[in-house]
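Q&A log
Question type: sequence-to-structure
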Amino acid sequence: MSERLRALVLGDIFGQPGCRALYVGLKALVKKYDADLVVVNGENAADGYGITPEIVSQLLAGGVNVITTGNHVWQKREILPILNTNDRILRPANYPHCKFGKGHTSLEIRGRKVAVVNLQGRLHMSDIDCPFTVGRELVRKLRDGARIIIVDFHAEAPEEKEALAFYLDGLVSLVVGTHTHVQTADERILAGGTAYITDIGMSGPSGSVIGVDCETAVRRSMSQMPLKMAPADNPAVIHGVFVEIDAESGKALSITRVREQSRV
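Response status: OK
Response body:
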């Protein structure tokens, strides 16, 4: 049987409930899946908007290998210097002329070079550089040294996420969608060997509206007033996917949805 790399990719951490769930439960989750690599989207970790240097340090110390982000990474200004000094936290690669951080990183896992790429969509989001053009060029360069490439595509529209996955099929091991906080049930392996899911969901409070207190979310929708969207203070559900990848070819062998209820 071919050597396999086992990757655990977890959805957007939302507020303190999501952080607590990972601080307490990540080691057990890694043991359960015998994961070699852990990638987590952390753009909503700080009270639902952005991420702080302290949270980055705690996640990395707790077993996370790479932190991806998205459009909310810019909310906490104190994270900007960290983006330039720590290559284990990423921002989307297709922000034009961005002087903070980068959108990809490479690391060695069990003697194999693994690359992680962070991209952001444009449909119903900011009109930044094309994720298709930027993503494919970046992947082409990374494949010289890494056969295993994982892409976090932080995007709103399912059609844009699916299109990117088909565009990169056979060039990367995995494309996961993030941003909507609702886990989809369309996980599959495409014809070229790339595993895909439209959205891996949220690691955040259960009994919430995409992480937000339900009462506030309802009042905001009904009144159309800009009410502050505070995270719900409930135990979190950790969502994501577990993927097995052929270490030699970089092709995905399996993809399984992850849903773990936290006790904290």
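Response note: The radius of gyration is 17 Å.
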